[in-house]
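Annotated sample (chain length 160).
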Amino acid sequence: MAQATDGNWQPGPLRISRTYPVRPELLFKAWTMAEHVSRFFAPAPYTVPGATIDPRVGGTYDVGMRSPDGDEHWSRGRIVELIPNRRLVIDFDTVDENGGSLFRALTALDLVEVPEGTRLDILQSYTVFDAERARPMIGGSPIGWSMTLDQLGPVVASLV
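Output written by the structure step:
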């Protein structure tokens, strides 16, 4: 994690990859349809109470996560790049209960065909606005993403 010169905490980017034994089209479908995103886009035991996705450049990409205690965390996003079956880039704004911005997460997903199927490469870069509240969320991102990608496997398998 990096420390900005102005004293504000700004973490380095997160990189994570996972390979799934499916065609890129199925992974792309899972990431661009709210009905599928709502089945995987949260680390267990969190659930997704809602997702709104408009799969086009400039389109909405909003996803909520609900904790077992009922607390909800929303990421409000816009699609900034979309190449069907190859690349999806979302500019997320993670907000608090009052709609205040905690941090932004520019999230790039690349789908690469490999002999085993399709490798999903994720690069997430952060801009922090509220370090105190964002730090635990961003600090938990590697584990959270890993759990989320575990849940993606059965979703894409069901699309075959």
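Annotation: Residues 1-7 have pLDDT under 50 and may be disordered.
Annotation: Residues 43 and 143 are 8 Å apart (CA to CA).
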